[in-house]
Specification:
three-stranded antiparallel sheet; 12% strand; formyl-coa transferase, domain 3; transferase; transferase activity; CoA transferase; alpha+beta; CoA-Trfase_fam_III
């Protein structure tokens, strides 16, 4: 998935949102699929399988999430999306966007930095 595809995914269906503001979540084929805050901005992340979620969990310093029944499968992550996003946000703010993008890209997770105008900032 290219950054352009991610931006399209994050903004698709955003007719009710403010113009130019990215929205995310609710994509059943990606869990989590959301905009996350970082120490200096925000980034969009779309996790499409259990391997990617395991890698994300390890990067967040929470490898046990990969075996937690609430998050162990894509279906479970989608069902517990709000809870998962809240937990991830507690960890994403600890590092800069550039650091997250480098680490996420290294392990093969689709991600893209967002400009302040895309996050409502």
């Amino acid at each position: 998935m290219t950054p352009e595809t991610l931006i399209h995914t994050v903004t698709r269906g955003a007719a009710s949102a403010a113009p130019g503001r990215a929205v995310a979540g609710g994509q059943p084929s990606y869990a989590p699929c959301h905009i996350f805050p970082s120490a200096d901005g925000a980034f969009f992340l779309a996790v499409s399988n259990d391997y990617q979620f395991s890698e994300l969990s390890a990067l967040a310093g929470q490898p046990q999430w990969a075996t937690d029944p609430r998050f162990a499968s894509q279906k479970a992550r989608h069902q517990h999306h709000a809870e998962l996003v809240a937990l991830l946000r507690q960890h994403t703010v600890a590092h800069l966007t550039e650091e997250w993008l480098a680490a996420l890209s290294w392990v093969g997770l689709p991600c893209v930095a967002l400009a302040p105008s895309q996050t409502g900032g």
